[in-house]
Amino acid sequence: MYSTSYHKAASVAEAESLLAGASDGKYLAGGQTLIPTMKQRLAAPTDLVDLTKIPGLAGVEVSGNTVKIGAATRHYDVASSASVKSAIPALAALASGIGDPAVRYQGTIGGSLANNDPSADYPAAVLALGATIHTNKRAISADDYFQGMFTTALEDSEIITAVSFPVPAKAAYVKFPNPASRYALAGVFVAKLADGSVRVAVTGVGESGVFRASAIEAALAANWSADSAGSIAISPEGVLSDIHGSADYRANLVSVLAKRAVAAAG
Amino acid sequence: MTTVSMTVNGKTVSADVEDRTLLVSFLRETLGLTGTHVGCDTSQCGACVVHIDGRAVKSCTTLAVQAAGTAVTTIEGLSSGGELHPVQAAFRDNHGLQCGFCTPGMIMTSVDIINRHGAHLDEATVRHELEGNICRCTGYHNIVKSVLDAAGRMTTSAAAE
Q1: B62 in contact with A, Cβ within 8 Å
Q2: How far apart are CA A99 and CA A69, in angstroms?
Q3: Which of B63, B112, B131 sits opposite A35 (nearest CB)?
Q4: Residue B49 contacts A, CB cutoff 8 Å
């Protein structure tokens, strides 16, 4: 790792000014991606501004039909939260399958979303549930937020403060994890929202990161059943291909996982 | 350089370190606590697992400065009064190790698993929860056996207290 200077921010405003004062700074959340990337010298920020010690940035709040999760909330705390488990069990289950237990103690929802890894789990939940990403500047809808692999609507100094999830009528997430990294080789989040609309998001598959599978959404809107989801073939065009799985393989996994997810959602 | 202070195995420690210093380097090189190992150095193998405020984390993926002000427990801090911790004793009794390289991380992760699941622990849960710890010798069977044995010992002794 190249040399860097660490700063602990006590507030969101202080974090922003610390970053503004750095020549090439980066925000640090749980560090489960950024620190390994720095160790490999693929990233070399001059300064790190730690957001996780900011009071009030972590925690879960359920009010009415909304689950609001603070950006610095660790995966473990989402997975084990009684209120998340009862309001959106699919979200708690998704968090319980990220990485491994040690990673889940450190990684945060805000960090995962800011990074927008094409194989990360949280983007699928955020997009399928039509969540809202709150920052220190504005609220961004999930449909506007994800803009391609490792690319989001966030401006350089913008900080995610929380994510609000509407409680769906039904939802489930099923992933096919890479057995070594536990990242999704493919992951499908299906949701029937409270208003009856259907949203399906796919991670680990798209060359441009997480995306909505509109053909599966249409099939499920017409007939909410596992067979209906599994009957849709996904084109391998624009699908990731690597040593872990070809584009054809991943595209087929989407149909299989969508079917399993609907079966799990009930 | 930053002066980093934390509690390690019950003792307050303080040292000037570069901000890029990993917690595992701080423990091994600055404090001389070499029981915590560096295996893969890519946050996959779990040989470097220590507890920060009671949570089992990978010390090769944490900066020492991030752990400032916390309470860290390493494998050296587990036993007390010359008696092995029940998880250490169970690993010895069940032949839960061969070369021993992964063992400190396995044991620190296992203590965390038992703390969270207690008497409800079953084999499938142990295998699932150990997925962040890699062992190249044992084939895991005796490790799983050790964790289940230790969970039994710890919950029995907790119930007796």
Answers
A1: yes
A2: 19
A3: B63
A4: yes
Domains of chain A (ranges; CATH) run 5-50 (3.30.43.10), 60-166 (3.30.465.10), 170-265 (3.30.390.50)
CATH, range B2-77: 3.10.20.30
What part of B 116-135 touches A (C-beta under 8 Å)? 129, 131-133
Does the domain at B86-160 match CATH 1.10.150.120? Answer given as: yes
ipTM over 0.90: yes
Contact between A7 and A16 (Cβ < 8 Å)? no
User: What is the C-alpha to C-alpha distance for residues B7 and A33, in angstroms, rounded to an integer?
Assistant: 26
- pLDDT per residue, tens digit, chain A (266 aa), is 999 999 999 999 999 999 999 999 999 999 999 999 999 999 999 999 999 999 999 999 999 999 999 999 999 999 999 999 999 999 999 999 999 999 999 999 999 999 999 999 999 999 999 999 999 999 999 999 999 999 999 999 999 999 999 999 999 999 999 987 889 999 999 999 999 999 999 999 999 999 999 999 999 999 999 999 999 999 999 999 999 999 999 999 999 999 999 999 99
In 3D, which of A75, A99, A251, A245 has the Cα closest to residue A163? Answer: A75
Q: Inform me whether the C-beta atom of residue A181 falls under 8 Å from chain B C-beta atoms.
A: yes
State which residue of chain A sits closest to B70, comparing Cα positions: A53
Residue A127 and residue A146 in contact, taking contact as beta carbons nearer than 8 Å: yes
